[in-house]
Amino acid sequence: RPHSCPRHPGARTMLPLLLLLLATAHGLNTIRYTPTLASSSLGGLITASTFTLEQPRCVFSEDPGNPVIWLVVAVPEAVPTFNDSVEPGSPERAFQRFPGSAPAYMTLNTTLLNYPCPKRPGDITVLRVGSETSCTKDGTRPTCNGPLPGPGPYRVKFISLNGSVPVEQTAWSEPITLRTAQPLSDIPAMGSGHSAGMITLTSILSILFAILLAGLVAMLVFWGSDTYGGSSTFSKPEAVTVRRYNTHHVYDQPAARL
């Protein structure tokens, strides 16, 4: 009767080493480069569903086979056991299954021609991870660069494939955590510890200003009506009776002689 092989406690710890040896057997070369976030001066560097990386310029070596460079996005737990031989677009690397049944996915595939070295003036040298929204639930596009499903953290690396064979890869990035929306109840009404007192004071000042303004308007109305009423006594002139006198002795007088 065959005896079953007992599980050894060190078997689990040997798995990453075996995967590394498998990658070496495929000729996979690890480059001394770590993906990094773009410059902090860039607006929207990290959002609730995206982050921005620097392009891997002058990182991968020239290859006559014109390999395709992919970005791998994974949860930190998947990094030690990541299998580089799993092809992009397979169910194990589909964005639509991330991070449930697919702890990593591959996206943003391009050739080295789009990462020229050195950088040309005016070139945009960043990659926005999570910017596609149209393919989020489209199972026919497993390499979708869709919005990330949560705050993370996430780790990324670049890998170069010649056909389906991995050729070169970078190191894994440091964990990247996205922003989270702050609940409305946690946002203070005012910026200081005396917010309630400031609100009360503001209300009182607003009421006093309203009363002062109403009094000023009433005074102007009263003053205007009084002015127009007083001047009305002079607006209608009194009737003046003028008697007409005919000075008969003045008419037809001969001119005075000198």
Automatic annotation (TrEMBL):
Point out the signal peptide segment: 1-27
TM spans (from-to): 198-223
* Record-level GO cellular component terms: membrane
Entry protein name: UPK3L protein
Alphabetically ordered keywords of this record: Membrane, Signal, Transmembrane, Transmembrane helix
Alphabetized InterPro entries for the sequence: Uroplakin-3
